[in-house]
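Repro case for the chain-ordering regression, as requested:
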Amino acid sequence: MDMRSPMSLLPLRLDHVTFTAGGRRIIDDLSLAIDAGPRTVIVGPNGAGKSVLLRLCHGLLAPSSGSIAWNSAEPAGAPRRQAMVFQRPVLLRRSALANVAHALGIAGVPARIRSQRAREALSKVGLERHAAHPARVLSGGEQQRLALARAWALQPEIIFLDEPTASLDPGATHEVENVILAMVAAGTKIVLVTHNFGQARRMGDEILFLHQGKIAERASAQTFFKHPRSVEAARFLEGELPW
Amino acid sequence: MSSLSGAMAEAWRLVASLDPRLGDIVGLSLRVSLTAVAIASVVGLPLGALIAVSRFPARRTTIVLLNALMGLPPVVVGLLVYLLLSRAGPLGALGLLFTPSAMVIAQAILITPIIAALTRQVVEDAWLEYREQLRSLGESRLGSVATLLWDLRFSLVTIVLAGFGRAAAEVGAVIIVGGNIDGVTRVMTTAIALETSKGDLPLALGLGVILVTIVVALNAAAYLVKETAQRRYG
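-- result from build under test --
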């Protein structure tokens, strides 16, 4: 039942994108192509514009200038082929299953197969036992896995992840990372923003280092952590720039 | 003092004996106010939520007006509905004046702004939290309204009850458009006003006790529903 259109969304191209808020240039004349394939991890100090960049890519914010274009545009009103998982998941006051089914409903999945699809998504993230539980009383880690299940159920080509484990303990972080890796294994492109060095090493094929609204360095994870080319990245890795 | 305690005793007797006069009046009160609150909710809940999630030119003016309308004086609403429904009025041909329908219309007009304005506030606060997630999922504005109304259902119950309390307790509008006709349009508040002026304090007090009991019981029930639901759904 893959309703995916033959035309891929990717690559995503940002062309001289600037985003200004309150007189500050949060994203500053940034150009970038995000290709299908490698797991992209965005790192950078606090206030570098990481979350804003993710929201621009996902269409939650509009650039002040410049253009953001997918390889094949998503028609207005059509089901989205991209998803996003936020640092703090927003779950509805319904059961875990109904939360996933609600998202499937928005995506136009017929009512009779929603519950089945939702159940499959829950079992992929290990939450099938909690299907009937109210979503908002699940633990933090379970809530974030539910948010991942909700995103995954939509069968997106690409998932944006905005510090998905920032408020989780190591055990829950590990479980969330495993779900993300399973999504990647199933062919989903991920773009992950993280504050966590270890996570960036574990999860990243390529690292985008963002500094003051610009991409200061783009490199493979191995290269980035061993031999950063830019001064900013080197200072950042030595802990001289604020996380 | 003795007249008050005597009246209280007589009032309790009326309530306890399920006096048919009392029963009719209470029944009509509930029918009118519940119908009015149902109509006001059908209009006010979606309207308030839609204003909360929309951006349009005169939005702030609309919100100020809506909030101001919460304080509409019942007698003014009664007067306006009276003018609309009177024989010479634009809706005079319907023959609704001095019927329970006229009272429903007046109360619905009175409480729709209350329900809409309070809903707008609750939904707007929640919208800040939900907006990015719902937009990310591709939910339309109308879809978001439906999702938010359902997700906030336990808070909205309190708002609907506030509307009911206001409707059941007001006297100014229903006395003008209903006329307080015995057995036709006499409700608890108009009966209390009339019996007090006639000096029949036991009936007035008995009705007063019932009115307060209904309002308190409903609010207690709403509070319990909200408490239980919040524990269960978070």
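Ordering looks correct now. The interface with chain A takes residues 129-130, 132-140, 143, 147, 150-151, 153-154, 229, 232-234 of chain B (CB under 8 Å).
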